[in-house]
Write a structure and sequence with these properties.
371 residues; alpha+beta; 3 domains; 7 helices; flat
Length: 371
C-alpha cells in the first residue's frame, strides 16, 4: 500500500512536467543559424542499360546530341549518317538534382535524385553515367554516377498497360562524391544569428527568454519576429560548437496563429488548436435536382397513314433534405466545432463551404487559407 501511494505521488508530481514536455519543441527544430544551410545542385546526364524503355533517339534531339558528345569523348568517331540509322532505346536523358549539406567536405557522398526529361517510359534497371553537378555559379561541386533505385514499374503492350508509382524517376543513395566545398565558417567572436523557420514575435520572445534563463540576461536579444541575436558568454567553459549544441536542445513552447487550411481539390481540412468562433447559427441542408429523360415512340395503326415519331419525355424531380440548425457558442474550441458540424452530417466539402460562410459573416477568429 505504501509503494502504491509513493507511485501515485510521483505520478502527480511528474504529470505537469510530462505535459509541458509534450507541448514543447527544441530550438533546433524551430530555428536555423544564419548561413548554415543547404545548397542546390543540378546536372544533366545519361542513363544507360534500359530494357527498351529509353528515349526515342530520332525524336529526342538532346539525347542524340548527348550520345554523340559522349562517344567523341571516348575517342571514337562516328559519322552523322551512321548515327541516324541507330534505333537504340536503351538510353535516356535525365536531370540529376542533389542538396549540398553545410560543412560538407571533399570526398564525402550525398544522395541524388534522377528524373527523365525525354520520352522514356521507365528508368528501371538503368545506370547513371558520370554526371557533374553544378551550383548556381556554374562551378562543379559534385560528380554523380551509379545504378538507379526506381520505386515504380511499368509493363504493357499496345492494348493495355500496368503502372505502379512513377518509373521515370529514381534515386541513388550516396550516388555523388563531393569535389568542391562551400566556403563558410562559424564566427570566431561567438556572435550568432538564429532565424525562425516561421515568423512569430511570441515564439521569438519565448526563445530569447529561454536562452537568457540558461546562460544569462545579456546572451540573447530578439531583433524582430524572425531573428534572434545570440552572443556566447565570455565565461562559457566550452567552445562555440558546444554552446550551439546546448542552445539547440533548449525546449520552448512555440506559438502558432489561429488558422484553418482547406484544400478544395482533395477535401482536406486542417484546423489549428487556437481557432475560435463567435456565436453563430449554421444550417445545413442538401438540395438534389434529378433530371431524367425517356423516349416514347408514337406510331400509326397498321395500314394507316402517318409516320413513326420518337417523342422525348423529360421528368424533373427536386428533393430537399431537412436542414439542421446548430448554434455555435462564442469561444468554442476545435473539438466543439468538430462535434457540432459532425452532428449535422457535414462532409469535408460541406465544411469548406461552411467555414467560408462563417468567415464572410465575421464570426471566425482566425485565418482561412484556401489552397
Amino acid at each position: 500500500m505504501q509503494r502504491k501511494y509513493i507511485l501515485y505521488t510521483l505520478l502527480f508530481i511528474l504529470l505537469p512536467v510530462w505535459v509541458q514536455t509534450v507541448s514543447a519543441a527544441r530550438i533546433k527544430d524551430l530555428a536555423n543559424i544564419e548561413g548554415v544551410r543547404e545548397n542546390q545542385l543540378m546536372g544533366y546526364g545519361l542513363v544507360i542499360g534500359l530494357n527498351g524503355t529509353g528515349d526515342d533517339i530520332k525524336k529526342s534531339v538532346f539525347t542524340r546530341q548527348a550520345m554523340i558528345n559522349m562517344i567523341k569523348r571516348m575517342g571514337m568517331a562516328i559519322t552523322p549518317d551512321v548515327f541516324s540509322q541507330m534505333k537504340t532505346k536503351n538510353v535516356a536523358a535525365v536531370m540529376v538534382t542533389a542538396k549540398l549539406p553545410p560543412f560538407a567536405r571533399a570526398g564525402s557522398t550525398i544522395d541524388i535524385h534522377v528524373a527523365s526529361i525525354g520520352d522514356s517510359s521507365s528508368l528501371a534497371g538503368g545506370n547513371l553515367l558520370m554526371t557533374p553537378l553544378k551550383g548556381p555559379d556554374g562551378k562543379t561541386y559534385a560528380v554523380a554516377q551509379g545504378p538507379l533505385a526506381v520505386g515504380g514499374i511499368s509493363f504493357g503492350g499496345k492494348a493495355a498497360q500496368v503502372q505502379k508509382n512513377f518509373p521515370t524517376a529514381g534515386r541513388i543513395a550516396g550516388g555523388a562524391i563531393i569535389e568542391r566545398t562551400v566556403n563558410f565558417a562559424l564566427p570566431t567572436d561567438g556572435n550568432l544569428l538564429f532565424q525562425l523557420k516561421e515568423t512569430d514575435f511570441t515564439t521569438a520572445t519565448r526563445m530569447t527568454e529561454a536562452i537568457n534563463d540558461q546562460f544569462g540576461d545579456a546572451t540573447a536579444q530578439s531583433l524582430d519576429g524572425t531573428s534572434i541575436q545570440v552572443i556566447q558568454p565570455d565565461d562559457y567553459p566550452g567552445g562555440l560548437v558546444s554552446f550551439i549544441s546546448e542552445i539547440e536542445n533548449i525546449s520552448i513552447s512555440p506559438d502558432t496563429p489561429a488558422r484553418i487550411v482547406v484544400n478544395e481539390r482533395t477535401g482536406t481540412i486542417v484546423m489549428g488548436q487556437d481557432v475560435r468562433i463567435s456565436t453563430v447559427a449554421v444550417s445545413h441542408g442538401n438540395l438534389n435536382l434529378v433530371i431524367s429523360e425517356s423516349i416514347e415512340v408514337s406510331q400509326p395503326n397498321p395500314l394507316a397513314a402517318g409516320e413513326t415519331v420518337a417523342a422525348p419525355q423529360t421528368t424533373i424531380e427536386v428533393v430537399e433534405e431537412d436542414g439542421n440548425l446548430v448554434v455555435l457558442e462564442m469561444g468554442v474550441n476545435i473539438g466543439d466545432i468538430a462535434k457540432a458540424l459532425n452532428a449535422i452530417g457535414a462532409t469535408p466539402r460541406d465544411l469548406i463551404a461552411i467555414f467560408q460562410a462563417i468567415k464572410a459573416a465575421g464570426a471566425l477568429q482566425g485565418e482561412l487559407v484556401v489552397l
